[in-house]
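name: query_chain
kind: protein
chains: 1
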Amino acid sequence: MPQFSYKVRAVGGAIVTALIEASDKRTAMDKLRAQKLMVMDINEVTINPVVAVLKQINPFKPTVSSKELVLFSRQFSTLVTAGVPIVQGLGILIDQVESPFFKAIITKIREDIEQGISITDALKKHPKAFSELYVSMIKAGEVGGILDTILERLSTYLESTEELKGKVKGAMVYPAVISTVAGCVTLFLIIFIIPTFQSIFSSFGSELPLPTRVLIGLSGILRHYFILIIAFPIASFFGFKRIRDTDKGRYITDYYALKLPLFGILLKKLAVAKFSRTLGTLMKSGVPILQALETVGKTSGNTVVEKAIEMTCASVREGESIADPLKKTAVFPPMVIQMVAIGEATGTLDTMLSKIADFYDQEVDVSVKGLTSMIEPLIMVAMGIVIGAIVLAMFMPMFEMGQMAGKS
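structure:
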């Protein structure tokens, strides 16, 4: 997305110069004016296309990790609750942050607040660090005068989300390592060990068994086209990423991801847990329901779920309840629909959403453990079959030669 350098006058009269990302110049100006800033000068920053591509695919580009954000939110919440002024609290946190990239962001936020910009507008300038959900909750805290309470809820929400992500990632590490090791061992045998046996078999002077011939042919293909075989998954990865960058491609991949056997159910449970936790936290924090639904949709992480929430938001805007349009989307399970309907009828929707989130967090935990316990033996069996087939194919000619020698 294009970047624009701008020079604006803040509410307090201070002159601020920074960068903003937007689709065009008019959109950039609208974003700045929405923050009650007087635009004095704005120009598009020209970036070399090659440099832009390298920056996009650079795996070492600085980012703010979710753990850093959780720790910052919890510490910030503690300081605000203790009555420490915002600017002074940010100054304390700057010394505590280890990441230079995140430290620079907090320093910039502190400078903006000192110049009269609100906390919400200061956070909006750093979308790579603070999501729309984060900014929306901080805005609700500022408007309602309950920033300390909002920060506490935000910290709890981020910790719960991080814990859920940690469970899923941790459970997938062992199968991924085993699969990688098995693949490397198999390739090593086929590429480096099989040719040694091939030179021995060539002296036999008789036709080799079919499994042995297939394995030797596969070894030859891998050795001669090794670079292309290595390049294929890399090209596939970037091709998939290119498709994911388009709206249609993202929707199609997200749709079929939810249809995958075993993993699709887990992804749907994760989406429901995230939707319930996020919407419940926003509503409890005083964010209006329409704004909360829009924010939840943008932070859902799945385009299919996002479209379903957008349809729900449009129906709610026209005066419908939340449960009915959610049911029409056919994305959310019946239990979720029923509990949302009960929450709306009793005026305890935020509480119901929190209970749904707790339930699906446990469901995800159980599903991940079950999936892991199922994948591990399957990988071991598959690895045994592959290695056994290679060994058998290599020793079949020797068995036949032994039988021929015995008959003679």
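note: The domain at 66-159 is CATH 1.20.81.30 (Receptor-associated Protein).
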